[in-house]
Design brief:
Elements: H1 15-47, H2 53-56, H3 59-88, E1 95-102, E2 105-110, E3 117-120, E4 142-145, E5 150-156, E6 161-165, E7 170-174, E8 180-184, E9 190-196, E10 208-214, H4 216-226
Parallel strand pairs: 1-5, 4-10
Antiparallel strand pairs: 1-2, 2-3, 5-8, 6-7, 6-9, 9-10
Organism: Cervus elaphus (Red deer)
Catalytic activity: 4 Fe(II)-[cytochrome c] + O2 + 8 H(+)(in) = 4 Fe(III)-[cytochrome c] + 2 H2O + 4 H(+)(out)
GO biological process, one term: ATP synthesis coupled electron transport
Length: 227
């Protein structure tokens, strides 16, 4: 999860988030190089009085500064499209969880089980135990198995919400009357926090998301205890 004064992204926990971090670094380097070149040219134009007429009117220079931006755009677009297709790909999910947004809490249903569903409310500040995080802890965590492909179906009962967990690279809008889907897979166990990322009313800030990723045998014990 994020920590105070953090400038970068949270640590990646899924293969998709790792790809997103690499793409961010790739694009940021291109932006840095372009900015440095433009700054250098501007400073050069302001500090020197020398001009070269053949350079100012040359067709070769115009050709270069037309083709070069096109190449740069291709270098950005191709990795971006690859990641977009990877994020939409869902191959034989091992588990499906239906997530419904409400004002202002989340409800979850494990559709592969007959009667495994619950609501998830934020724990008020006055009821927090030592070590628990204010505005991020919930009374019922979403327990999921790690290293398995999990499909998440997201919708809403009332207004627009957005189900987002940054460290897993997830952000899916919850729209009334529409069922969106996303996929997640965690490479390591742990607690992963998120929040509603769509302004949905007065208590928008008070509907957190907590995913608890555990090994498969622990998940089976938890699911058996919930039934």
């Amino acid at each position: 999860m994020a920590y105070p004064m953090q400038l970068g992204f949270q640590d990646a926990t899924s293969p998709i988030m790792e790809e997103l971090l690499h793409f961010h670094d790739h694009t940021l380097m291109i932006v840095f190089l372009i900015s440095s070149l433009v700054l250098y040219v501007i400073s050069l134009m302001l500090t020197t009085k020398l001009t070269h007429t053949s350079t100012m009117d040359a067709q070769e220079v115009e050709t270069i500064w037309t083709i070069l931006p096109a190449i740069i755009l291709i270098l950005i677009a191709l990795p971006s499209l690859r990641i977009l297709y990877m994020m939409d790909e869902i191959n034989n999910p091992s588990l499906t969880v239906k997530t419904m947004g409400h004002q202002w809490y989340w409800s979850y249903e494990y559709t592969d089980y007959e009667e495994l569903s619950f609501d998830s409310y934020m724990i008020p500040t006055s009821e927090l135990k030592p070590g628990e995080l204010r505005l991020l802890e919930v009374d019922n965590r979403v327990v999921l198995p790690m290293e398995m492909t999990i499909r998440v179906l997201v919708s809403s009962e009332d207004v627009l919400h957005s189900w987002a967990v940054p460290s897993l690279g997830l952000k899916t809008d919850a729209i009334p009357g529409r069922l969106n889907q996303t996929t997640l897979m965690s490479t390591r166990p742990g607690l992963y926090y998120g929040q509603c990322s769509e302004i949905c009313g007065s208590n928008h800030s008070f509907m957190p998301i907590v995913l608890e990723l555990v090994p498969l045998n622990y998940f089976e014990k938890w699911s058996a205890s919930m039934l």
